[in-house]
Each structure stands twice: as structure tokens, then as C-alpha cells.
Amino acid sequence: MLELYLKLVFALFSGAAGLEFLNVAWTTETLIIATLILGVALLFGETVYFAMVGARKWHAEYVNVHLLIQAALVKQDFSFSPELVPAERRHPFLPSLYTSRAFILVQLCNASIIMLAGGLWFKSTLNPLTLVVSGASAVVLFLLNMVRGNRILKQAEQEFWKRPGSSWIIASLTLEDYKNRRKDSDSNTSWD
To answer: So where does this one cross the membrane (predicted)?
Structure first.
């Protein structure tokens, strides 16, 4: 999805540059159509961003479940207790939101789509307020996405470590069966 979105943004900017080169006259109708197209592209960008947040959440859950299973097998506790994995060994849910190039790239593409729409309206209206509003809208969207993504991942991390057994990965595992099979195999191999 990310690659498709980046290609879409590249196509939008190439199209806008081509129209600028051809010196197309922007009527109100063409501006509205262009704004609608950019709005749909921005909606797709938001979908990509929050799909990436969800993928990050699932990846962190997967890695942490692996750590829980490993700790349960090593200690032969056979429970998914959060105490088995110390805090420093836990895989964080959140940092990639601020450091991942993909997250930042999608955010910049979303902001650039808003700025492109503002630039098109400015060219037609010659009102500098359109540039100010589009710039402020881009910054506000950037910050709202960061806050919302941050909240989603923090909540997912707290929920996971509060009840790791309810994770989508662990829900299908039954360690009771493993414990019972292990007891059976231990009793079959006893020397008594």
C-alpha cells in the first residue's frame, strides 16, 4: 500500500507540474475537481498511515508473544505472565512512529497534498490566506496523526502487557494441552 501511495503522490505532483507547464486556466469547476481528487488521495494516505500503525502494533505483539513463549518454556512455567519478560527485554510498540522513514514519508506526502491544493487555490484566488490555511492544515494533520498513532500504540502496549493471554496470537494457543502431553511423556519415560 505504501508503494502504491507514493506512486499516486508522484503522479499527482507530475500532473500538477504538467498542468502548470501547459499554463492551464483554472476555473472554479476545475479547482473543485482537482481538490476532490486531492482529497481522495489524502484519504488514501490517511488509510495507509493508520494501516502502518496497525501493522506496527501486530509486529510488536508478535515479537512480544515470542518472548513470552520463550520465557515460559525456559522457566517451564507454562503461563503467559508479563513478569516472565523483564521490561528492558520487551519489544516497544511506539518508537518507530517517530523514527521510521515510512511513517515520516507518509506524513510528508499527506502534508504535501494539502499544500498542493492550497497552491492551486492560491494561483486562482491570489489570496495569501489560502497558503496560510493550507500550511496550518498540513501541520495540524501531521500533529493529529502523530497524537492518534501514539495513543493507539500506547493503548495497545498497555493492553497487551495487562492481559497478554488475550492477544490474537496467544488466543489460539493452548499450553494446557502442551503441559498434559509433557506430563504424559514424562510418566511414560519414568524408570519406575
So the answer is: 5-26, 32-52, 102-122, 128-147
